[in-house]
Design goal:
Layout (H helix, E strand, L loop, with lengths): L8 H9 L4 H7 L3 E2 L3 E2 H7 L3 H17 L8 H4 L4 E2 L6 E2 L23 H60 L1 H70 L1 H27 L17 H13 L4 H8 L5 H6 L3 H4 L20
Antiparallel strand pairs: 1-2, 3-4
Keywords: Coiled coil
C-alpha cells in the first residue's frame, strides 16, 4: 500500500493512464483500438476472456453517459493536420468534428446531463473495472509463476537424475565384476584372433597344396592325351597290318574268293542252260547247285567275324606301347612253313573241278 495515495500505486497509475478527459483523448487518439481502448492495453489483456468482458462492459457504459464539452477554439483551428503514427492518416488533434469515431462517442451539448455527476460515476466505475482487471492480471501472473516453478522443478529433477546416472556409470566402471568381465572379453578376443589366424594359415597352405595337385593332375592328363595320340598313330596301324596278315583273315578272304568263283561259274552255266538249244546243266563240269548259298554264307562270315586279338587290345587301351605292340594274332606265332600243304578249307571239295 502506498502511504501517499492509501491504495495500490499500480491501480492509481493505470487510472491516470485511462483518464478519458480531453488530455487523455489527445494522448491516446492515434493508438486507439475498437471502442476507445488503446492498442497497448488490448495487447496485454485481451487474450484473457475475463479481461475482454470487463473492457467491453466498461466502454459500453461509458459511451452512453460520457460527455465532452469542448467547443471549437480559434487556436485549435490554426493547428495544421498531423499524420498518425499508427494508421498513417492525417488528423487534426484539436478538431473533434473531423473524426466522428473518436472513442465511439457522440458530440453532445452541455445541457444533456450533468457533467460533474457523470464524471464522478464514470470514475468510480472505471476504478472498479480497473481493480477487477488488475486482479485478473494478478491471477494470470500467479498462474504463470506456478507454471515457471513447475518447469524449474522439472529441470532440477532432470539435473539430479543426470547426476545420478553419471555417478552410477562411474560406479559401474569401478565394479570388480565388470572389470573381470572386460578382462575375460579381451582374453577371449585375443584367443579368437589367434585361432582365426591359425585357421587362415592352414587354409592358405591347403590352397597351395591343391594348386600343386591341380598342376600335377593337368600334367598327367596331358601325358595321357599324348599316349592316346601315340596309340592311335602307331598301335592301330600296326594292329591293322597284323590283322590283315593273319591266317584267319586270309582264310576268310580265300573262302570268299572261292565262293565268288564258283558262284560266277554257276551263273555262267545258268546262262548257257537258258539257251533254246537243248542243254543239260547237271552234266556241266564243276557245276554245283549250292554255290549261291555258299557265297552268301562266306560274306556273312566275313562281316560277323570276331577277332580275339582285337578284344585283347581293347581291354587295356592305356597299357604301355611295348605291351600293345607285343600283342599279335595266334596264327602269327606258329606260321606254317612254305612247304606245307594248302589248308583243307581252301581245297576244292569237288576233285573233278
Amino acid at each position: 500500500m502506498c502511504k501517499a495515495y492509501e491504495t495500490e500505486p499500480s491501480v492509481d497509475l493505470l487510472c491516470v493512464f485511462l483518464n478519458m478527459d480531453y488530455a487523455g483523448n489527445l494522448l491516446t487518439l492515434s493508438n486507439r483500438s475498437g471502442l476507445g481502448v488503446p492498442k497497448e492495453i488490448t495487447k496485454l489483456i485481451t487474450y484473457l476472456e475475463e479481461g475482454r468482458k470487463i473492457f467491453e462492459g466498461y466502454w459500453e457504459k461509458e459511451t452512453n453517459c460520457r460527455v465532452f464539452g469542448m467547443g471549437d477554439s480559434p487556436k485549435g483551428s490554426k493547428v495544421p493536420p498531423q499524420e498518425s503514427k499508427a494508421s498513417g492518416d492525417p488528423f487534426d488533434p484539436l478538431d473533434m468534428d473531423s473524426d466522428p469515431d473518436i472513442h465511439g462517442f457522440r458530440r453532445l451539448s452541455l445541457g444533456g446531463c450533468s457533467h460533474d455527476s457523470s464524471f464522478v460515476e464514470t470514475t468510480s466505475q472505471r476504478d472498479n473495472m480497473t481493480r477487477k482487471l488488475m486482479s485478473t492480471l494478478t491471477k494470470a501472473r500467479a498462474s504463470c509463476d506456478v507454471i515457471n516453478e513447475k518447469e524449474r522443478e522439472k529441470h532440477k529433477a532432470y539435473v539430479e537424475l543426470e547426476m545420478r546416472c553419471n555417478d552410477a556409470l562411474q560406479d559401474l566402471d569401478k565394479n570388480p565384476l565388470v572389470l573381470d568381465m572386460r578382462k575375460e572379453i579381451n582374453t577371449l578376443q585375443g584367443q579368437t584372433l589367434v585361432i582365426l589366424h591359425l585357421k587362415v594359415k592352414g587354409l592358405e597352405s591347403e590352397r597351395e597344396r591343391l594348386k600343386k595337385s591341380k598342376t600335377h593332375l593337368l600334367q598327367e592328363i596331358n601325358g595321357l592325351r599324348q599316349d592316346r595320340a601315340a596309340v592311335v598313330a602307331k598301335v592301330v596301324p600296326h594292329m591293322a597290318t597284323k590283322l590283315v596278315c593273319s591266317d584267319e583273315m586270309g582264310l576268310l578272304v580265300a573262302r570268299l574268293a572261292k565262293a565268288a568263283l564258283f558262284h560266277g561259274r554257276c551263273l555262267a552255266f545258268e546262262e548257257v542252260a537258258a539257251l533254246k538249244e537243248p542243254f543239260e546243266l547237271e552234266k556241266m563240269h564243276g557245276y554245283r547247285p549250292l554255290s549261291k548259298k555258299e557265297f552268301h554264307q562266306a560274306g556273312d562270315n566275313l562281316a560277323a567275324t570276331s577277332c580275339p586279338f582285337l578284344a585283347e587290345v581293347i581291354v587295356d587301351p592305356y597299357a604301355p606301347l611295348e605291351v600293345l605292340l607285343s600283342k599279335k594274332p595266334n596264327s602269327l606265332h606258329s606260321r606254317p612253313s612254305p612247304s606245307s600243304s594248302e589248308p583243307s578249307s581252301l581245297k576244292d571239295p569237288n576233285p573233278t573241278s
